[in-house]
Amino acid sequence: MTGAAPARSSRLRGSRVTMAHGGGGKAMRDLIEEVFTDVFRPPGDEDQARLTSAALAEPGARLAFTTDSFVVSPPVFPGGDIGRIAVCGTVNDLAVGGARPLWLSAAFIIEEGCEFDLLRRIVASMQDEAGKAGLRIVTGDTKVVERGAADKVFVTTSGIGVIPPRRDLQAGNIRPGDVALVNGVLGDHGATILAARGDMALGTDIRSDCQSLDTLIEAVLAAAPDTRAARDATRGGLASALNEMAAAAGVGVEIAEDTLPLRPEVRGVCEVLGLDPLYLANEGTLVLFVPEAQADAALAAMRATPAGRHAARIGQAQAGPPGRVTMTTLFGGTRLVDTLVGEQLPRIC
Amino acid sequence: MRYVEEFRDPVAARGVLAAIERTADRIGASPEAPLRIMEICGGHTHAIFRYGLDRLTPGGIEFIHGPGCPVCVLPMSRIDECIGIAERPEVVFCTFGDAMRVPGTSGSLLQAKADGADIRMVYSPLDALEIARRNPEREVVFFGLGFETTTPSTALSIQQAAREGLANFSVFCNHITVPPPVRALLDDPHMMLDGFVGPGHVSMVIGTHPYDFIARDYGKPIVVAGFEPLDLLQSVLMVLRQIADDRAEVENQYARVVPEHGNPVSLAAIADVYAPRPSFEWRGLGEIDASGLRIRPAYAAFDAEAKFGVGYGAGPRTVAEPEGCACGQVMTGRIKPTQCPQYGTGCTPEMPLGALMVSSEGACAAYYQYGATDTRPEATE
Amino acid sequence: MCLGIPGQITEITDPDRLMALADISGVRREVSVACIATPDLAELVGEWALIHVGFAMSVIDADEAEKTLIALRGLGEAQETLEAMAEGRSALEGTQ
């Protein structure tokens, strides 16, 4: 556990959250103060954070606003925890729109019986991750629900950012000929969670790729100012992100299987369970489209940052058919890469 | 990955494809008069489409997708029986992932799980055994389905449960065998096949001799194939060379894994635990003699049919297929998925009518998932 | 039911139950070696086997694998030679 030592004279009784901690009384105040606000230190004492930003006032600047809920199980896994992905996920949602993150909120729904130590760990991760991006969690909420009504803890984060003037990242900008790039290896998060859930009894050393990508995106935009669009490949994996972007832009996309960066262990998990790495979730991997002329610069910029060491060129937008994503296989054949339907279930056949 | 990547080498692929093209020409195959080769096994169907082999091989070769998908050939009534067992409060129902989305008459196992049944996806029957050991107060039932590849694993698990005296473990046995439906297909006068690509992992268990009747009695070549793209291509080439030479033999392309006489331990376990049912219902093929397995009386304590009073003889035998479902015709190679009137319209992966669209081994799902633009019905704006 | 993948046996974990640890491209899973058991289970360590639903079902025969690869590569090399010859010819003829 990182930096999550309980306060020396803890006012909290026992080791677990009870319904009393959701009651609105003293127990609840003690929980909120000790576990959350003593760490996050939100500004002011009111329910709402009151904030100003010169960047927002700049003519042509736009406010970006995003929200996401996190329900991952197990809440702690190799490479991170639900708190860390709650911050990274929202930071990344802002960053892929070209926004510079400013402030975060964090709301927690806690199941009766959840351990204080788990909450402390999650909060420490969030504070640590927010600090890396130069951010603060400025407001939040907690609720306690009965045992069984939630799975230990659910976290919702919202983020506000500012899009500088003249920046306009959106999938609709993608044109045929634009190059598709990823910043790193695929599927680490999804494979980690599958292995961590234990029902398949697989042992691996894979860790989640959970990381904030705001610095990486700023570096790319500096080197390749005409970058068209970016999207993080979370649920549904790279395949779903590409399908969404292709559909929004009305272009086709072709990728090449032999360019996709994959760790051998993730390949192994996929082979054993009959899964397709294209559909595994990522928490620190994005796909972006840049004009051909700026592709090399974008790649070089990514590779110079820690989050982009394994950046690779994976394909290209085509004239059509609109919304269709195809892949040339390792083998020279082609296949369709459709959007994920339902949940990807391990295959035995 | 060793023993995998070498068999995906694109350079070697070009060589095999060129040889296939030359041999197909020699035979006089053309898109108008193609050679019809059946890949029996659903895993092969999946591999063909995943690697785009159907489009890499010349137009004179047509792959006919056989009935080797054990999930696809499960009658709906068996899914209904699974759900019936799973709904009992004391039961933990363990199943492979493939079976979760197959529609029964009133929903799938996935839907039953959402409705509150304790249904768990496992990778191995050994995992179900472990769940039984750790939960002595629950009844753990494992959904045993599959061809001969998987049959030994459930047999060995039952034997292990017997050794340990586990009182709360049973198997709902739906194991089936490959040779009988192949014979039924060959006996069908409408079926015109020129050769077979044989199921590599089934053969790992049963060896290559169970297919002798195909060459000897029906004069068709069969090549037992591995699952990497080079394995499949080499097997297709070997079938073509037999046709060109006017031979009909059983050949083993997958010799690195498949022993001629199969696996003795597996075969002994199957013989010990299972006996053939007089006949078993196959979705799309109807009743086929001696094609399904049941648990022997000696192991009745591990037979979910005995424990829960379900299965053959206990209820109505056949549940009619939903109206418009043509799974049976696709599965026997009579029509292609795209020729089914429901394909992509009334039957899609999100809302499947029949198992071929939900099972990842099903021909329709493979077409839909991997198919090129020409197989997807165009959306109307 | 066909999904099988080659894995290497790395240690015997429970000789009485015939269980061993298999490594499949860095992924570790305990598997039954009942189908491939020899009187001395230690002999299996280091062997490659086809793993299916938690059972090692067949030892992979390295010689047969090599033979298959040689035949496949032969076809590949022959094809490369043919293609190179064709390119050479067209270069000579100025039709490239």
Describe the structure.
With 349 residues, chain A is α+β, with helices and mostly antiparallel strands. Chain A is built from nine helices and 13 strands. In chain A, strand 2 and strand 3 form a beta hairpin. In chain A, helix 1 runs parallel beside helix 4, helix 3 runs parallel beside helix 4 and helix 6 (214-223) packs across helix 9 (292-303). Chain B is of the alpha/beta class and 381 residues long. Chain B has a domain at 76-177 and 262-308: HypD, alpha/beta domain 2 (Rossmann fold, 3-Layer(aba) Sandwich). Chain B has helices at residues 10-27, 42-50, 53-56, 76-86, 109-114, 125-134, 151-164, 179-187, 200-206, 212-218, 229-244, 264-273, 304-308, 327-331, 363-370; strands at 35-41, 61-68, 91-95, 119-121, 139-146, 169-175, 195-199, 222-225, 250-252, 274-276, 279-282, 286-289, 293-295. Chain B has a five-stranded parallel sheet with strand order 2-1-7-8-9. In chain C, strand 4 (48-52) and strand 5 (55-59) form a beta hairpin. Chain C contains one helix and five strands. Chain C is of the alpha+beta class. The longest helix of chain C has 32 residues, at 62-93. Chains B and C meet through helix 1, helix 2, helix 6, helix 7 and helix 9 of B and strand 1, strand 3, strand 4, strand 5 and helix 1 of C.
Structural topology:
The complex is a heterotrimer of chains A (349), B (381) and C (96).
Chain A: H1 26-40, H2 54-57, E1 62-70, E2 76-77, E3 80-81, H3 82-95, E4 100-111, H4 116-132, E5 136-145, E6 153-163, E7 179-182, H5 188-197, H6 214-223, E8 229-232, H7 237-249, E9 252-256, H8 264-273, E10 286-290, H9 292-303, E11 312-318, E12 325-328, E13 334-336
Parallel strand pairs in A: 4-5, 9-12
Antiparallel strand pairs in A: 1-6, 2-3, 4-6, 7-10, 7-11, 8-10, 9-11, 12-13
Chain B: H1 10-27, E1 35-41, H2 42-50, H3 53-56, E2 61-68, H4 76-86, E3 91-95, H5 109-114, E4 119-121, H6 125-134, E5 139-146, H7 151-164, E6 169-175, H8 179-187, E7 195-199, H9 200-206, H10 212-218, E8 222-225, H11 229-244, E9 250-252, H12 264-273, E10 274-276, E11 279-282, E12 286-289, E13 293-295, H13 304-308, H14 327-331, H15 363-370
Parallel strand pairs in B: 1-2, 1-7, 3-4, 3-5, 5-6, 7-8, 8-9
Antiparallel strand pairs in B: 10-13, 11-12
Helix pairs in contact in B: 1-11, 2-15, 7-12
Chain C: E1 5-14, E2 19-24, E3 27-32, E4 48-52, E5 55-59, H1 62-93
Antiparallel strand pairs in C: 1-2, 1-4, 2-3, 4-5
